């Protein structure tokens, strides 16, 4: 579903180490990767990201060239006359980038944000939808077969070869 990106894995490992040892927690330029669940069904992909404390206006979603990027910002504000004794929550820029296969239509992404959870739905493209194809053999119409878009059945392949040779 998603391609392995070693640089993203290294960035996430660095962020985990920083969180574990308390480095860069309140740095304004910190880039954090929010946790995500990715599910797939016949309609398409569903990505669910945790963005606690983020305002909907501070979320940017970009879909371009089979890449889906989610960026959000949560600022740290310390009130006047207050001393911070412990700051453990993550602040700064949250960013996550996903490589989306071509069988999904990034022009129809839907996003909902509810109680700190962002849900993105990416539908399958029309060309990738399953459809029923009638197969003829010996002049008779056989039972319809459902084929996945982009796959050739044996009958289709043989038919194409026989028409090319004629």
TrEMBL record:
Keyword DNA-binding tagged: no
A Pfam family reported for this protein in Swiss-Prot or TrEMBL: HSP20
Keyword Protein transport among UniProt keywords: no
Polar residues biased stretches: 131-140, 149-166
Gene3D superfamilies according to UniProt: 2.60.40.790
Residues annotated as domain SHSP: 27-138
Keywords: Stress response
Superkingdom of this protein's organism: Bacteria
Region Disordered, residue ranges: 127-166
Family annotation (InterPro entries): A-crystallin/Hsp20_dom, HSP20-like_chaperone, Small_HSP
Protein family according to the UniProt entry: Belongs to the small heat shock protein (HSP20) family.
PANTHER family: HEAT-SHOCK PROTEIN 20 FAMILY MEMBER
Protein name: Heat shock protein Hsp20
């Amino acid at each position: 579903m998603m391609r392995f990106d070693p640089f993203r894995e290294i960035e996430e490992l660095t962020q985990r180490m920083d969180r574990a040892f308390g480095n860069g927690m309140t740095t304004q330029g910190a880039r954090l990767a929010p946790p995500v669940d990715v599910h797939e069904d016949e309609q398409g992909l569903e990505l669910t990201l945790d963005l606690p404390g983020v305002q909907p206006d501070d979320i940017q979603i970009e879909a371009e060239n089979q890449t889906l990027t989610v960026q959000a910002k949560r600022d740290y504000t310390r009130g006047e006359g207050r001393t911070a004794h412990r700051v453990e929550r993550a602040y700064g820029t949250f960013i996550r980038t996903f490589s989306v296969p071509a069988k999904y239509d990034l022009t129809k992404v839907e996003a909902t944000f509810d109680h700190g959870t962002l849900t993105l739905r990416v539908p399958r493209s029309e060309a990738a939808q399953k459809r029923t194809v009638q197969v003829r053999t010996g002049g008779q119409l056989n039972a319809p077969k459902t084929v996945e878009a982009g796959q050739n059945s044996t009958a289709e392949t043989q038919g194409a070869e026989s028409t090319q040779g004629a």
